[in-house]
């Protein structure tokens, strides 16, 4: 009986063909919601910039005194972490009695249309906006080019200027860049860029008589969700679509040293606790592939050898560069305003 079963499955597999990006059909045990439709490509002439994003920020490390410990404020670069790939998965483990092996579902998203030059321009303008907002609030500021002048703080910078890699603990990738002429700051960065040496930080703070801010603004391009992740069950569902947001990975690290010795005298972290998203259209999305094992899973169940149903799809999100930049700068203005509000609150402004 076992040999007959295996032979039947083998013949069926040959008849169905390779499941990689095969035509999508309805799976008996897997549900995947249709991808959220996005508009056609937007014209290059973007409308005037809208209001800043409403970005919430909380202090998650240190106390408010950290933000008022030194008279001046020095910007240790300004990292933009732009997500370029995302994956959402869901699975269920089947029935308790073994008559079902459950289901799994997966969707992959890739961002296209945004290059390094565009991201560096966004980082530069975002940095300049933060400088302007801080000075408008009455604070003395050392901008990043001044901080890193004449080789000062070179050990904080990350070679190459742009980094792509998985964000630890997630199924996503991001590119990290810094302002033009400065580059990405590896120390206290985001994702795999969170490397580097903090040696000399105390000396910089002491020399500039300033607290040191390490801004990291993370921008996401897709919203995803999944359900069915449980030990027992027969259904799994994933869905997603293009949506621009400030990701909760966004943060600002704050350090200071009055003595100038060692790494620092104090450390605080300002974190964005939840995503700040808008529904503005900025990209078109197309499905580039799909696969499932529906037929094989159905036959195997009939023959008494259940197998897990699997379904996946791939999607490309093509962003309009000008619209993406507009949204990114609106996000930066909101992120920067939240930073200034935290500093003003700490300094009694």
Gist of the model:
The chain has 349 residues and is of the alpha+beta class.
Descriptors:
349 residues, 14 strands, 31% strand, 14-stranded mixed sheet
Structure description:
The structure is a single chain. This protein has 349 residues and is an alpha+beta fold. The protein has one domain. The protein has 6 helices and 14 strands. Strands 1, 2, 3, 4, 5, 6, 7, 8, 9, 10, 11, 12, 13 and 14 form a 14-stranded mixed sheet that branches. The longest helix has 26 residues. It starts with a helix and ends with a helix.
- Tally of alpha and pi helices: 6
Indicate the percent of residues in helices: 10-25%
Q: What would you call the shape?
A: elongated
Strand content: 25-35%
Structural class determined from secondary elements: alpha+beta
Extract low-pLDDT stretches: 1-48
Biggest β-sheet strands, sense, barrel: 14 strands, mixed
Number of strands: 14
Number of domains: 1
Mean pLDDT: 78
* Element pattern in H and E: HEEEEHEHEEHEEEEEEHEH
User: How far is the first residue's CA from the last residue's CA?
Assistant: 81 Å
Task: Please tell me how large the radius of gyration is.
Answer: 25 Å
């Amino acid at each position: 009986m076992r040999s007959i079963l295996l032979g039947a499955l083998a013949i069926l597999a040959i008849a169905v063909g390779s499941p990689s990006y095969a035509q999508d059909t309805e799976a008996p045990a897997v549900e995947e919601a249709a991808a959220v439709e996005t508009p056609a490509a937007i014209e290059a002439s973007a409308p005037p910039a809208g209001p800043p994003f409403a970005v919430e920020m909380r202090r998650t490390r240190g106390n408010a005194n950290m933000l008022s410990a030194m008279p001046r404020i020095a910007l240790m670069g300004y990292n933009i972490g732009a997500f370029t790939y995302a994956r959402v998965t869901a699975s269920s483990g089947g029935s308790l009695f073994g008559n079902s092996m459950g289901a799994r579902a997966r969707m992959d998203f890739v961002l296209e249309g945004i290059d390094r030059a565009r991201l560096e321009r966004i980082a530069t303008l975002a940095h300049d906006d933060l400088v302007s907002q801080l000075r408008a609030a009455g604070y003395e500021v050392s901008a990043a080019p001044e901080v890193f002048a004449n080789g000062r703080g070179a050990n904080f910078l990350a070679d190459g200027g742009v980094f792509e890699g998985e964000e630890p603990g997630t199924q996503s990738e991001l590119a990290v860049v810094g302002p033009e002429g400065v580059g990405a700051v590896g120390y206290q960065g985001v994702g795999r860029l969170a490397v580097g040496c903090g040696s000399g930080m105390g000396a910089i703070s002491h020399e500039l008589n300033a607290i040191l801010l390490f801004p990291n603004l993370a921008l996401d391009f897709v919203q995803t969700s999944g359900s069915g992740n449980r030990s027992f069950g027969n259904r799994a569902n994933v869905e997603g679509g293009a949506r621009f947001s400030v990701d909760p990975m966004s943060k600002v690290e704050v350090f200071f040293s009055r003595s100038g010795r060692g790494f620092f005298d104090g450390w605080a972290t300002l974190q964005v606790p939840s995503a700040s998203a808008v529904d503005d259209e900025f990209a078109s999305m197309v499905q580039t592939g799909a696969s499932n094992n529906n037929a094989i899973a159905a036959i195997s169940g009939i023959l008494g050898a259940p197998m897990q149903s699997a379904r996946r799809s791939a999607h490309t999100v093509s962003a309009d560069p000008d619209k993406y930049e507009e949204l990114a700068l609106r996000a930066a203005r909101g992120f920067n305003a939240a930073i200034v509000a935290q500093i003003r609150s700490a300094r009694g402004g």
